[in-house]
Amino acid sequence: MSMVEEAQVLPVKSEVSKRQARPSSRARIIFSKLAHTPRFWVGAVTLAVIVLWSLFGLAGYTYNAVGLDVMAMNTAPTAAHWFGTDQIGADLYAQTIVGLRKSLIIGFVVGPVSALLAGFIGALAGYLGGVWDRIIVWFIDLLLVLPALYILIMLYPLIKGGSWVIVMVYLAVFSWMILARVIRAQTSSLRDRDFVKAARFMGVKTSTIIRRHIIPNVSSLLIIDATLGVGAAILTETTLSYFGFGVQPPDVSLGTLLSSGTGAATTRPWLFVFPAAILVITVLATSLAGDALRDAVDPTSGANRD
Amino acid sequence: MTETMIVPGTHPQGVTPVLEVENLSVTFPQSGADVRAVRGISYHVNPGEFLGIVGESGSGKSVSSMAVMGLLPSSAKITGSIRFQGQSLLERSDGELSRIRGKGLSMIFQDPLSALTPVYTVGHQIAEGLLLHDKKLSTRAAALRAVELLKIVGIPSPERRAEAFPHEFSGGMRQRAMIAIAIANDPKLIIADEPTTALDVTIQAQILEVMQQAKEMTGAAVVLITHDLGVVAGNADRIAVMYAGKLVETGGVDQVFHEPAMPYTIGLLRSMPSMASTEARLVPLEGRPPSLAALPPGCPFAPRCPIAIDDCRKAEPALVAQPGDPFHSAACIRSAEISDGTLERADVFPRPQPVAAGIPVENAGAEVLSVNELVRHFPLMKGSVFKRQIGVVRAVDGVSFDLGAGQTLGLVGESGCGKSTTIMEVLELTKPQHGGIRVNGIDVAQLSKRDRLKMRKDIQVVFQDPMASIDPRLPIHDVIAEPLTVHGVSRKEQQRKVSQMMELVGLDPEMASRYPHEFSGGQRQRIGIARALVTAPKILVLDEPVSALDVSIQAGVINLLADLQQQLGLSYLFVAHDLAVVHHIADHVAVMYLGRIVELGASDDVFNRPRHPYTQALISAVPIPDPTLERSRRRVLLEGDLPSPTDEIPGCNFRSRCPLYTLLPENLQQRCKDEDPSLRALEGISVACHHAEHDVLISTGTEGQCR
What we know:
The complex is a heterodimer. By secondary structure, chain A is mostly helical. In chain A, 68% of the residues lie in helices and 0% in strands. By secondary structure, chain B is of the alpha/beta class. Chain B is 33% helix and 22% strand. In chain B, strands 6-7-8-3-9-10-12-11 form an eight-stranded mixed sheet, sandwiched between helices. Chain B has an eight-stranded mixed sheet with strand order 18-19-20-15-21-22-24-23, sandwiched between helices. In chain B, helix 4 runs parallel beside helix 7, helix 5 (139-152) packs across helix 7 and helix 16 packs across helix 17. At the A-B interface, helix 1, helix 10 and helix 11 of A face helix 1, helix 14, helix 15, helix 16 and helix 17 of B.
């Protein structure tokens, strides 16, 4: 509501400037703003706990992810099997932790990497314009129309060895294009803004302009995409595993656990609820931290927004 | 509270006012404190009257008129009473209001592009308003009436134009179409919210003319809301000045302009650069309007008021009639002292003293920037796959000028005349399409990459819009230090220079780690200036540096620019469409029209005795904030809009709009048709007109045009 904004003159004095009279760089301001956002700490601490748990959660635990306890098949959570067991007696707690490790790596590599790819390629196309723009957009469109799954199937014989790592690369390479087009469109309008022109007239290098002006101004989109991408990558990996790529039994990931547990959600809920809950908590914590980061990067967010 | 406004006698005997607003308050609930945008204002508008409401942005002038139209969001809390022709408007439902809106009460908005629907033809949109309020009207009759209305507002070939879409109209024509819609149903009251702010001066003069005409034809009363005192001076009967959501002064236009009784009005009037005066320094109105969410007790203007006394901070003064003049009221406890002369108006806001010159300019007047026959043509392409050129946009078509050390060259013209393209070409520091650019005597086409980077230190730019020219995501320190990063200056040195520059432009260096949005418009423009100055340049290119600022803030920035020039010996290339500002600051002026310079000379010569008919029209279109002068002078009105720069015009390209051309005998007209005039020397200035010696336009009585 512009009228209200117009009528309101905001003598906001940010906490940052009160505390330190010395002018500080943008990075330091962002960090100190983050440090003062409770949301960020909730998200970050939760994530840290999850990571630590996935690393050390099996220490001192009797069972492992591959061994089967034939004496206790289909049991609900007990003192011995904390998350219960499935129909062949595999311990769900151990499997969840092992799966979590893999899923965390997949999620936290694929989400941010694809957002970064989208950011840099999109910004480059939008900022350079002309022939470069056309070449990059043509390449983006090519990747968009290529049936990604078939390519994976075709290439699969070549990459059989380190299967799930390849899947990670594949996920990152095939998930940045749409965002890149959005970023490109935003960049080409940013390029005509006076502050970018001003930087150009000062003689600032193209790469510096993109890093200093373009990326921070489209960062809201990038951060949102990166955080949502974490959850999306974990789930997409499931689909690929279903087709026989990615994580294959007896190896597990959160995704494969979930997809095999879905059918039992009503009859043996522990098979579904525990992996699902952990996935939800992970994605939620990422979103919280990402949201706080977005607000920290965007100076106009927070107090004076209605 | 302000009953004085409605005392019997302020309106003619037995006439009920068209609009009566009483004790109107508008509050926007906000999570923190409520924003009280309008705080109890009362006014009335008599039939056929022209009321001007003046105020800076954020004064609540638009909100109060939106309340009258019933167009405020439902979250706004509105109290008080609004009576239109005796009927109360506030308690009505939206449906009932819609029957009154557009018929009895109509509105003209600021931005004519967003006020018209892009997907319907203009004729259709005018007819829509007619059909809505007159069910018996046939579609055909409505369409005919729409054409008639377009003719009334002065749109050429209205039959064809009625079929056109809004994007095919120029800004001025769109605003004319808006006026046509507004007067379609013979309204009793037209509210115009900054109707000319988005337009060029020449178009503004046309639109104001059309509005006067429309008012006379329909007999409607007009409420004109504006920040430009010049616009109301020549048109309004009465004026109401708003500040911080309240009326602070009302009265007849002559009283308010000649004998203002409220310090805010005095300050506003004195802060305006005027074509009629060339005082060396403007009078800035320091500070900014208070936050409407947390108003301190007392007079809201007290913090900015130079004559505030302790009593001012205790209670807010009410609007009271001035002794001896019941029609003139002011909200100031010291207004009596002001009107009886105890407090001299000129002393309330004293003119600041000019600063002493710092370093004397080395080889003053030596040429630092020289542009010779600069050309910039943009090809006009058609087709998506196989592009072919269908024409050429002659944005800049052979422009030459020189800028001397320590001097200011003003580049003026309507939007679209190529002045911005010219300076962008200069700032690129590369070889132009045609012609040459020399900075400090060095041809920029010959520069190596490294030398060009070094030269960028010497020539810097300040942009028009301080919101757009500063990266919203960079703290101020990084913004100002940015030019230094290019030249490998150490971080420590950067910090030192940034605080030094902030001090220089009047900002507190403590604020360096804040973000741009925490600053007001004027402060942001100061940041822009600090950034431009941090590399200690010799030439500053100023692209409309004050046109986006409020009047009261504008004066401060102009003074700052003048001071900096004195202190640092800078040379300015000053681009503006506001001639009053240019007149004030420039030593030399170049007037541009369609990519050419049509008149070039010393500022005083050009403004006091313009030779080119275009310059004459431009100068006479600038409103002067003085009702007496404004009424007495004769205007040279330009016909129509700027022609498209793609047109190939043989002969003089100004011919189509030239007021002199129409007055010339045929044998002289022939020369304009055949021969393209080039700049020629005439009594100390250069002018591109064959018949510049003919003084027909100014000799026929434009007294007091610019004295």
